[in-house]
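FAQ

Q: What does a record look like?
A: Structure on top, sequence underneath. For example:
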């Protein structure tokens, strides 16, 4: 697979977690804090319903852009609230 084909591929949270040796919960925490690039598509939930709905996928290029450090925070991206 060429570099351009890999960068266009979309991965699930489980695939990202496995590649980066972290839990899916960690990947979703990065989504909530804005520390990882993702794409949301599909029907969104109506106001008042829990969550936003739709599927979340991650461009394969995020695997090249971040690597977790020993605290579980991705390196190479700004994290909010660390050390507070």
């Amino acid at each position: 697979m060429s570099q351009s084909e890999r960068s266009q591929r979309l991965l699930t949270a489980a695939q990202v977690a496995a590649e980066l040796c972290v839990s899916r919960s960690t990947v979703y925490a990065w989504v909530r804090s804005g520390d990882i690039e993702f794409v949301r598509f599909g029907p969104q939930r109506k106001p008042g319903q829990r969550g936003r709905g739709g599927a979340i996928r991650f461009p394969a290029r995020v695997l090249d852009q971040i690597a977790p450090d020993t605290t579980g925070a991705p390196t190479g991206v700004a994290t909010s609230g660390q050390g507070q």
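Q: Is there anything notable about this one?
A: Residues 78-84 have pLDDT under 50 and may be disordered.
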